[in-house]
Amino acid sequence: MNPATATITASGTAPDTPTALYADRRRLYALAYRMLGSAGDAEDIVQEAFLRWHAQPRADVREPRAFLTTVVTRLCLDHIKSARVRLETYPGVWLPEPAVSGAADGGSADEARAEAAGTPPAASHVTPEAELERLESVSLAFLAVLQTLSPIERAVYLLTEIFDYSHAEAGDLLGRTPAACRQALHRARTALAAGVRGEPPSASHHALLASFLMATRSGDLEGLTRMLADDVESRADGGGYVSAATKPVFGLRAVSRLYAGLAAQIPQSVQARIVDLHGWPTALLYQDEVLLAALQIQAAHDRIQRIDNVMNPEKLLRLARSLGLKTSLPG
């Protein structure tokens, strides 16, 4: 099967109407964002894919949706190869870039602010919202573990598990046999099962995150100890701009002391609010309209299993702009 002329598994609508174009841009962005863990790079790749589609004679592309998926996937694989050295020399712990889905995938700033405020934007007749929300729901922890997979494992997992490709369809797109795709999928599932901990977010997840913020702000070591799992792990990405642990911190004693000790370092003027990013409760810390950090937790049985804290101002820039905030970057 030629991926550029494959049968469309959804509605079959070619993306040459505003409705289909918007739906496909969101879907393709969701794929690229998971592949790369970078909202900016995902935006660039989706834009490049559409430029390539527009440059093709219409008669040569019978199924634009399949063509665009193929181009985005292959551009992502090329980008991963070129970025390998940069990631290997990254200062400290690398975490994905947090992003508001509405702002990053071509939606409006109003949609982005509505998502961050926890209220849905006005009803859209563009595409079934439940399906798009499923594609866009993703945590920083999931994205971080995805980046530890090989590029092919990552692509196979996303195409088959998230975007409902068959092994044969994924193999045609990637130049692999169905058997090789099944093996890659097995390795990816094993790695994700071991690396992504906790339960899907719920009301109790939101409350636990709020309690964690309060205990950290007050330096409540006992309170932190009660809400952290024995094998909790914490990762912080300062990107060389902000002071942060250069390696993951493991264990109840070390992580509780780490966050209790932050109380003396956090100015009283720093504010926090919990918003929804890609379906996950996320704590935003900001001061004088400057976004300082985006923090998520993974939790199970009302205990925090993992903490991901993005403080790198370069990775906060798009999120800050979509919310009307700034970062600590000059200018």
From TrEMBL:
Domain of life: Bacteria
Subunit structure: Interacts transiently with the RNA polymerase catalytic core formed by RpoA, RpoB, RpoC and RpoZ (2 alpha, 1 beta, 1 beta' and 1 omega subunit) to form the RNA polymerase holoenzyme that can initiate transcription.
Source organism of the structure: Zemynaea arenosa
GO MF annotation list: DNA binding; sigma factor activity
Official protein name in the record: Sigma-70 family RNA polymerase sigma factor
InterPro entries: ECF_Sigma-70_Domain, NTF2-like_dom_sf, RNA_pol_sigma-70_dom, RNA_pol_sigma70_r2, RNA_pol_sigma70_r4_t2, RNA_pol_sigma_r2, RNA_pol_sigma_r3/r4-like, WH-like_DNA-bd_sf
Residue span, RNA polymerase sigma-70 region domain: 25-84
Region of interest (Disordered), residue spans: 101-128
Sequence ranges assigned to domain RNA polymerase sigma factor 70 region 4 type in this UniProt record: 140-192
GO BP terms: DNA-templated transcription initiation
Amino acid composition bias (Low complexity), ranges on this chain: 101-123
Classification via SUPFAM superfamilies: NTF2-like, Sigma2 domain of RNA polymerase sigma factors, Sigma3 and sigma4 domains of RNA polymerase sigma factors
